[in-house]
Amino acid sequence: QVQLVESGGGLAQPGGSLRLSCAASGFTFSNYAMSWARQAPGKGLEWVSGIRSDGSDTYYASSVKGRFTISRDNGKNTLYLEMTSLKPEDTGLYLCIKGKEATIRRWEYDYWGQGTQVTVSS
What we know:
The chain is an all-beta fold. It is built from no helices and 11 strands. Strands 2, 4, 5, 6, 9, 10 and 11 form a 7-stranded mixed beta sheet that branches.
């Protein structure tokens, strides 16, 4: 059974940093692209970043490019998102999502976690 469990969220000040983790199980993690998406209250889901199955290719939404870094450790079945230079508009529930194949497909996914809350405020 596929499980994705996010952690590492919390309160940060503008300009601060957070590191999110996603522990994956129930599938062959190294075979699939993974992504992070986020949702603010009353807003739709926004795709944030994706990473190829072997970690060789990454993509970022324009709003986070240069500030966030996605990575993965296939030996630990874990996905990461390092967030720096945080802004209030980064606030939201961050979800770990599983792709359907090795290559990154922005909105092609089949499972997601419950999310971890990130709040950026003074």
